[in-house]
Each structure stands twice: as structure tokens, then as C-alpha cells.
Specification:
alpha/beta, 5-stranded parallel sheet, 20% strand
């Protein structure tokens, strides 16, 4: 069978699209391969969220195009957000690209070009480790954040039906998934069109699936309500992990960003989470250097981070995106100032994170084994309920022999800035 290779860029939502693209090609008679030199078809599934993602997309397209000279590649396909947003503008600059497909028409384009219009399967070609899998519960976004181009790229928010999500979740479990991660542009907005909320969806997943861990990503602070918090507090299968991008804390900046709630509501939210879910792990991200951000706004944010003591934190410099209301706003701080502010907050967060990590020394926690460790002093890399894949820290296990997806009770004996070091207390369980 002819080989097809995928270069997947961007977030976990894009990863799912990439898996469906590979599933389509397999069902159409192609063989997914890892070696780009052996692929007759190469797909670059792109992101375009910020400038750095756009630059990465361009670099990857050019790199993939080189295999048309050095390898077996005859067809180069570009899909995803970059293609959706810029294909009409840049197609002439990339004559090596044979086919462009966006986020809203890639199924139609690929079917017509590679399957002669025949109906084929888009069942996902799952990536390793099989034990941890993402499920997309909605498409698009209807928020009007001034800095974000996603609504113009992916369209308005549209929830998937609960039935389709449950069916896919059951299928993922049958393929070996034991940790299920719910994603959308705003997971907490799920079902607001119909009244069947995220809390109701989680209750259905608990009833109809057997995942040992269920995790949520990308929650909006406006829609994290008490019903959701109480469910997380009462159900041990739901990881008490709250990934809530807050973007800023200063009211003038939040108002300009078109974000809600404002600072008072955000402070109350943090207090509610800590009160209702005492073992909650909080993750957030902030934009620095937004137009109009002054020293007093930054100091306000610093004080808030000292108050909130996030378990995980990311900070990013403002990226002006065409088509957004913030694109032409005046008053942006100097690049050097923004860089200094980012470094200052991450130094503060490193201190907070280390204190949190060290407080766990001597405790027993449950982890999921992800892979064999690259550190020769440890056997395996794992994660706790407080750690999402790829973006958060790891738990390094000193001994034992486990397959990926095994849940192990461990005792923490050491800590770094972001990672933990532990020894196993039992033989582990794959929780079938």
C-alpha cells in the first residue's frame, strides 16, 4: 500500500483532526508511516493561533516539500487552521503544495481527491500512548475576545450531541484508553445551546463508561459553576484539575480584552474552587504586553499570582492577529519590557511550584504510567491527577515494571521545580 505521513502541529484539538485524517487514508487504502522519506503523501495539519504557530506552519510546509526531491513524496497536502485562514493568500508562494484544505472542508476535499467522492471512514488512527486519549466535545467558539482569531477560523461554538460523544468514548475505551481528556475551545460552554451542560455530560460519561480518570481542559472562568465543582469534589474518577486560561486580572485590560468575569469575580472563583474542591490543581495562562498594559496593571497581576498560587502557569507575550479588534490597538509595551515581565512571572511561578512540589514529599499518590524514562536513574515517567500530558510536570518512578496505562500507587521522596520523584507502593493496575 502507498505510504502516508502526517506532520501534526498545534493543540490537542488539532491532534484529533490529524488522527481522523490518518484514519481516512487508512480506510482509503493507504498505510500510515513514520518515515517521511517513505511517504508518497505527506499531510501537514497546521495551527495558526498566533504568529509563532504560523511561522512553524510555514517552516514545516517547506521542510515537508523537500521530501518531494529527497524521498518518495508525490503529493503534499496542507490542512488545518493555517490553510483555512491563509490558503488563498499564500497558495502561489507554495507551488510545492498540491492540495489545500481548511478546518471546515477537509473531509469533502480529501474524499473527492483521494476516494473519488465515495463515502469512507474517518475513524481515528490513534496515537500512542493509547492509554490516554482526547475527545473533542465541541467545535468553534462564540466568544468575542479581542485578541483571538479562533472564531473567525473555526466558526461559532457548536456542541456535539451527547450520544456521539458517549459512543466515541466507549470506542476509545475499547481501544485501550484509560484516561479520557475532554477538549474544546471552551469546554465549560458545552451544551449551553440546549441546556445539557458539561456537568450533565460528565455524569453520563461516569454512568456509561469505565475510564479510571476523566480530565477537562480549557475551561472559561465565566462558566465554571458550583454544580461542576460539586461533581468534581464528589467523583474520584474526575481529576480535580482545572485548566482555566484567565488572560489577565486588571479590570481595564480585561474589559479591553472583552473578558468576563472581571477581577472580583476571578478572585471569588479561585476561592470557590479551593473551598469546594480542596485538592484541586489549578492551571492558568496569561497574556503580557497587551495594548495599554502599564506597570500598575502588571503589578496587579503579580499580586494575584501570589494570591492564587497556581499549581501550573503559563505566560505568553501578546501576539497581534489580523482580523481581531486588538490588532491595531495602540499602547503596546516595548518588547524588552514584555520579555522582562514574562521572565519575572515565571521566576515567581517557579518558586511557587517548587514549594507545592516539596509539600508533596512523603505523601502517597496515584499516577498513570506514560512511558519508559529517558533518565537512566528512573524506570518510568508517569503523571498524577494534577498533571495533564505534555504541558505539565512528570512523576519519575524509581523501580518496577509497568506497561503504559498502568495506574500505580507511589510514595513521593523527592521534588524538583515542576517534577516529582517517587517509589512504587504496589504492583499497579490497568483498571480494566
Amino acid at each position: 500500500m502507498p505510504g502516508v505521513a502526517l506532520q501534526n502541529l498545534g493543540c490537542s484539538k488539532n491532534l484529533i483532526d490529524g488522527e481522523r485524517i490518518l484514519g481516512f487514508f487508512r480506510s482509503s487504502g493507504f498505510e500510515p508511516v513514520q518515515d517521511m522519506r517513505e511517504a508518497e503523501i505527506i499531510i501537514v495539519n497546521t495551527c495558526a493561533f498566533i504568529r509563532e504557530a504560523q511561522e512553524e506552519a510555514i517552516e514545516t510546509i517547506l521542510e515537508s516539500a523537500s521530501y518531494k526531491k529527497e524521498g518518495k513524496c508525490r503529493t503534499l497536502v496542507v490542512t488545518g487552521c493555517f490553510s483555512q485562514r491563509y490558503r488563498e493568500e499564500v497558495a502561489d508562494r507554495f507551488p510545492e503544495v498540491n492540495l489545500w484544505a481548511g478546518v471546515d472542508d477537509w473531509e469533502k476535499v480529501l474524499t473527492e481527491h483521494f476516494a473519488g467522492g465515495k463515502v469512507v471512514s474517518f475513524e481515528r488512527e490513534l496515537m500512542e500512548p493509547l492509554s490516554t486519549q482526547y475527545i473533542k466535545i465541541a467545535e468553534g467558539c462564540s466568544h468575542k475576545c479581542s485578541f483571538c482569531a479562533i472564531p473567525s477560523i473555526r466558526g461559532p461554538f457548536k456542541s456535539r450531541s451527547p450520544q456521539s460523544i458517549i459512543e466515541e468514548a466507549v470506542w476509545l475505551y475499547s481501544k485501550g484508553a484509560r484516561e479520557l481528556i475532554l477538549v474544546a475551545q471552551d469546554t465549560s460552554f458545552y451544551g449551553r445551546e440546549s441546556g445539557f451542560t458539561l456537568t450533565a455530560l460528565l455524569e453520563e460519561l461516569l454512568k456509561k463508561t469505565s475510564f479510571h480518570w476523566i480530565r477537562m481542559m480549557y475551561l472559561h472562568p465565566q462558566f465554571v459553576d458550583d454544580s461542576l465543582l460539586k461533581l468534581v469534589a464528589s467523583e474520584k474518577r474526575i481529576c480535580p484539575y482545572f485548566d482555566i486560561p484567565l488572560q489577565h486580572i486588571s479590570d481595564p485590560i480585561l474589559k479591553s480584552m472583552h473578558r468576563s468575569p472581571l477581577s472580583a469575580g476571578i478572585y471569588k472563583l479561585i476561592e470557590r474552587i479551593r473551598s469546594i474542591v480542596p485538592d484541586a490543581a489549578l492551571r492558568s495562562s496569561f497574556i503580557l504586553g497587551y495594548p495599554g498594559e502599564k506597570e500598575n496593571h502588571f503589578n496587579e497581576l503579580r499580586k494575584f499570582i501570589e494570591f492564587a498560587r497556581f499549581d501550573k502557569l503559563g505566560v505568553f507575550p501578546f501576539s497581534p492577529e489580523q482580523g481581531t479588534s486588538a490588532y491595531n490597538m495602540k499602547g503596546r509595551p516595548r518588547t524588552s519590557t514584555v520579555q522582562k515581565r514574562c521572565e519575572e512571572l515565571m521566576l515567581l511561578q517557579r518558586e511557587i511550584s517548587r514549594e507545592i512540589m516539596e509539600s508533596k514529599i512523603g505523601t502517597s499518590i496515584e499516577v498513570i504510567v506514560d512511558s519508559v524514562s529517558e533518565d537512566p536513574d528512573y524506570n518510568f515517567e508517569a503523571r498524577s491527577r494534577s498533571d495533564a500530558p505534555e504541558i505539565d510536570g512528570k512523576v519519575f518512578i524509581s523501580s518496577g515494571s509497568y506497561a503504559p496505562g498502568t495506574f500505580v500507587k507511589v510514595k513521593v521522596f523527592g521534588a524538583g521545580d515542576y517534577d516529582l520523584f517517587a517509589e512504587p507502593l504496589d504492583k499497579g493496575c490497568d483498571c480494566l
